[in-house]
Write a structure and sequence with these properties.
Chain lengths: 329, 329
């Protein structure tokens, strides 16, 4: 069944959906046969989310000592890695990093903490205070990624001015046991629902190259669609020494782009941002991510790995004739 | 007149031509509207010349002291630049560089000499001897670029085993007087004809970003089509201190890609290789050149500027799932 991507693109643009079997078939495309898939993804993106690029940055506000055993993670206490270990940074530092992110042109700034959840009381309060100051003193939109949360914490974050809560599913339901055995997938799914119920937008995606199959990547995309998340961060594994996946084979650039395009077709109206592992996995093909359907990218450093200088990303966007979305678009 | 690029691509694939006015209209496309143009160029390229990439390298065998006043050229005696000045390198060196180029994966190796023409007698003989040795001792195909030549020189090169003669028109007939006033455009056109008549294939293209208009770029493409050259090297100006164009504004990456695509549509069956100025002008978009219709690229250093390491180009080709054409394909 040779897919007519023009027609499929039009169907999705007119509000129709892509079927799982169609996505699985598109997953078999290779080499230049992928170009029409990218073309369709690009048209769908522009139709639903426009052609501006959304930039975001993060701060690793609390690092290491995580009791979870996620196979890829340098911050897991189950791994011996060089990832820094420190407790929650102070409010001043959170606000200073927000200013730095704004200076770099990011519209969204994520405060990320390692660990299954943050401790109620002092830790949550310090973050909420920082969010309030960031709201008052900068033009950047603060978001938080504090692990598994309940309604009380979610409401506190809303009250402090958090707009978006980030919590990844990391992979598909069927592959998750291969990634993490210290908590259940449904706890992550539930965190997404709790955050939405409290009135937060949800930024939820995952990481590819963990050993999952293409079908499992597609499975994850459909789960995100069911949960109706608001933005989807896509990471590509940057194997870190000391983790279970230190010797994992890198996902190829064209496979990264194919994954982005499939997510765009399955999640046509969502913000899809390319985050961790972009430079490492895409190399010379980084400039293809927007053609493949992404509408945003993280700039600056990642959680435990460094990103390239923001100026290089800005030059790439200029070279692509792409402009940057300002904050709340 | 909104061009249907699908239909235009099919017309060209079926042997039809693109009209000048159609090319001029495509020259107005900007941003993501260029993606379908690249898609059409890519399909046309694959139809006529396949999806393998042709790699070539050159040696600057005689440098500087050129009496011509080409505005872009660091080797012109009319300019004060840092370009090295040396007479014709010896046969041993020419052969050694051929081996280096072969090691880098190039299928074609160009022996280039500055100056209006090379001197008959000793200079020509030394080059012909080197060509004979390169033929015997390596698997790479030697080509020559020795300026304006007559039938006698062309025949000597054929006899020595040269397959392709390189001689650029540099720009369009109408813009040429702005580039060079020390010789006439028709001398270059005639050199192409002389070489073809002697049984040589001809590699003939030019350089963009000299101040020419888009229409003049298109004009040059149609002149090359009339001359029925065999391969078309496209260079993008890398402004060199001391030349008339030292402060020229760089042509943008998308303009470079648009030019490549237009040349593919106008010269559908030809080998189109991206040469000088690729890294400088295309930056993160170097990986788009083949999608835009190019079927080859120069690797290693250029005449008077350095190229990036061959390994980086090989990684880019691998990442694009593109394989390299072996020598005489």
């Amino acid at each position: 069944m040779k897919m007519n991507l023009e027609k499929l693109g039009e169907r999705i643009i007119e509000g129709g959906d892509i079927l799982v079997e169609e996505a699985l078939e598109l997953a078999n495309l290779r080499g230049s046969a992928l170009y029409p898939l990218f073309g369709a993804a690009s048209r769908i993106k522009e139709h639903f989310v426009g052609d501006k690029v959304f930039l975001c940055s993060i701060v690793n506000a609390k690092s290491g000592r995580c009791p979870e055993n996620c196979s890829f993670c340098a911050q897991s206490a189950h791994h011996k890695t060089d990832a820094p270990v420190y407790s929650l940074i102070d409010e001043e530092r959170m606000v200073a990093c927000a200013r730095e992110a704004e200076k770099n042109g990011s519209s969204c700034y994520g405060i990320i903490t390692s660990g299954t959840s943050i401790k109620k009381g002092e830790e949550l309060e310090r973050i909420c205070n920082a969010v309030r100051r960031i709201r008052r003193e900068t033009g950047i939109t603060p978001s938080c990624s504090l692990g598994i949360i309940n309604h009380e914490t979610a409401s506190a974050l809303v009250e402090a001015g958090v707009e978006t809560y980030h919590h990844n599913l990391e992979t598909s339901r069927s592959f998750f046991p291969n990634v993490c055995t210290t908590h259940d997938y449904e706890e992550d799914v539930n965190t997404v629902r709790v955050a939405k119920k409290a009135g937060l937008k949800v930024c939820c995606g995952g990481i590819f190259g963990l050993g999952e199959s293409v079908a499992q990547r597609i499975e994850m995309a459909y789960t995100l669609r069911e949960l109706d998340v608001d933005s989807v961060p896509l990471n590509f594994l940057n194997p870190i020494a000391g983790t279970k996946l230190e010797n994992a084979e890198n996902i190829t650039p064209m496979e990264c782009l194919q994954t982005i395009a499939l997510f765009r077709l399955i999640l046509p109206t969502k913000r899809i941002s390319i985050c961790g592992g972009r430079e490492k996995n895409l190399r010379d093909l980084q400039s293809w991510i927007f053609f493949a359907g992404a509408s945003g990218t993280m700039i600056g450093n990642y959680l435990t790995t460094t990103g390239r200088a923001a100026e290089e990303d800005w030059q790439m966007l200029k070279d692509l004739n792409l402009s940057v979305a300002s904050c709340c678009e």
